[in-house]
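RECORD TYPE: protein structure
NAME: Putative uridine kinase
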Amino acid sequence: MKNNHSFYNLKESAQSIVLTINQGLKDRNRPLVVSFDGGSGSGKSTLASEVASSVEATIIHCDDFFAVEIPDHEWDIYSVEKKCRLCIDWERVRAEALLPILAGEKAEYHPFSFSTMNGLSSEVVGLEPSKVIILDGIYSSHWLSDLTNLTILVDVAPDIRRNRHNLREGTEDREWHLRWDSVEDYYFTVLRSPDSFDLVVVNE
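PREDICTED:
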């Protein structure tokens, strides 16, 4: 699909996305995969949750699959392209979450955790099959494009988005911004510009 619609109100956005999803489900015998993409602090998780509650969707939180095998100091010597490509373990997303659900099976995986030695929580996340699967995560619309049916960008001016990120984290988070801001800028200018998405939500 080509982007023809932009929305400037979250309630209107959620309603329009639900309508688009329901239209996409007509005469469909496979789950519909919807990507909610956008930078950190854009509000994509909030919007994804609201939409999911209306269409009984299963949400895959892509941050659960952060690349635990790469230590912090290595990220800082990588190019922006390499950080963009490697920060999420997309093979795990596919193998442990998305493909099982698409096959009508329950998915189970250990999510990322900052507090364990191996970077994985002892908790097991279980996801049930459903007719709608939502990918909640930046970069998902690009790296999972072969399995995605609808792409949604939650777009916010970078300064607003970064301020929201800081408020959420309770800190200025300078180290995070130094490491990842340029990667997000690269992604939304080089790999997935706003006009490449099916729907754009301006969440300001």
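COMMENT: Residues 174-191 form the longest helix (18 residues).
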